[in-house]
Amino acid sequence: MDNIFVRRMRENYRWFLMASLIYGMIFTFCLYKNMSGITFPVLTAVSLAFSVMYLRKAGIRFQKGTIRYFTGILLLGIATVMTDSGFLHFFNCVGILLLYMMSMAHQFYKDKEWGFAEYIKNFFIMAGTWVISAGDIFCGSGKNKKKEVDNSVESGRVLWIKRRGFRSVLIGILAAVLLLIVVLPLLMASDQIFSHIFNRFFNLINPMSFLEKIDIGNIMGLVFTFLFGSVFIYAFFAGIFRMNLAGKAERKNKGADPVAGITFAGIMAAVYLIYSGIQILFLFLRLDTGLPEGITYSQYAHQGFWQLIAVSLINFTAVLICQMVFGENRILKVLLTVVSACTCIMIVSAAYRMILYVSEYYLTFLRVLVLWFLMVLMFIFFGVIYSIYRKNFGLFRYITAVVSVCYILFAFGRPDTFIAEYNISHAEDASELDVFYLTYLSKDTAPLLAEIDRDEIRDQDVMDSLDIYFKNIEGEKRLSFREWNYSRAEAEKAAAKWLGQKE
């Protein structure tokens, strides 16, 4: 049986349909061939405004706690127009989508009662319901079915009359066309003026010549974008109105016998304590002696770095499973705390190895991303340790907050700019820079590359690479108002500055 929200959506089908079509038009204007322009943050704000309108139309009160999710969405929208990085553009969209789903979960359901596993499960259900509701926008309201049945006889009679008249018209058109196939060539052969006029008229209405003037690709793209935007928002609310997840907290039970968990955690804790002791004694306390003999920075950084990240993620999963499966036990809590604390030491070890590598081989985007991830993972484990002693702690919401805040700072920090600044400042000579890599990154690096003194570049290949890079930027199409992007606008200024110095 349909719930009250589904019934309200069907009763107000025309309103929801028109609102979705209007949203589709705005969606098309903002995003068609323009995923990172000034209209992107405009669309995020419009999307949130439409969402509030949909909720009010369904009779749902706006929750104050939803504002924090909306704030994160708006900040990610602004961060998108501030950078030219495709990586950030993609993950900004992913972040916006996840925060939007969390905001609606908070609006409709008692998400504070959800545990970590239930959040993950309900998110998959929400996404699945969203997808299968894509066709609802074309189904109508079903509101006047009874009235349609009562009037079926009368409407059938009228329809039959219309069909009969339409069939007669078609028969007449077909007969005329068949006759004209024979008559027209005869008339055209009998009079040159008539033939000339008819040929000009035929060329004018020729569908092929008309289609050649139309950009079919653009029309199809606009139509698809419009339909996607309209269906996107309508299907989301049709799906979430249909769901029934409210009040479903995780089951409170005594859990399994903790002896198995204590045995497992005890063995793992013993191994990790030995490993962590080695890290403290032979890595952290030997900062003055450097690396072991016979091992280069590259070998040392790669030797065990990715393995440590893998072990950290495994430990995170193992601790969560132990908390969910086994019952309350002080010894188990202590052992899980030891495992988590040792994992933090492993994270620090992995970060230190990467820092050693960066000090020798400079920064790349992947190295910055890894260091950021390790920092986030460390904060997450702080929450995991706290959740061991506080059963009602909202670990999933804590992780969402940590990842959201850290990612928003990461996005606004524009890592490509930081990479270029670090590499340029730590290079003894401009010719030693891997200029090709810096030009391979987004246009965020252009203003910093333009600051390099041409007189300090002794390598002609470096000079040629920079000249080609800035010429390509100058040769690109000028940004329209809709496509304006801060990073690309600054890159155009940098190109003008660099090429002006050359002249």
From TrEMBL:
Transmembrane intervals: 12-32, 38-55, 67-100, 120-139, 169-188, 219-241, 262-285, 305-327, 334-355, 361-388, 395-413
InterPro entries: DUF4153 (IPR025291)
Pfam family, any one: DUF4153
Keyword Transmembrane: yes
Keywords: Membrane, Transmembrane, Transmembrane helix
Keyword Cytoplasm: no
Highest taxon above the source species: Bacteria
Protein name (Swiss-Prot/TrEMBL): DUF4173 domain-containing protein
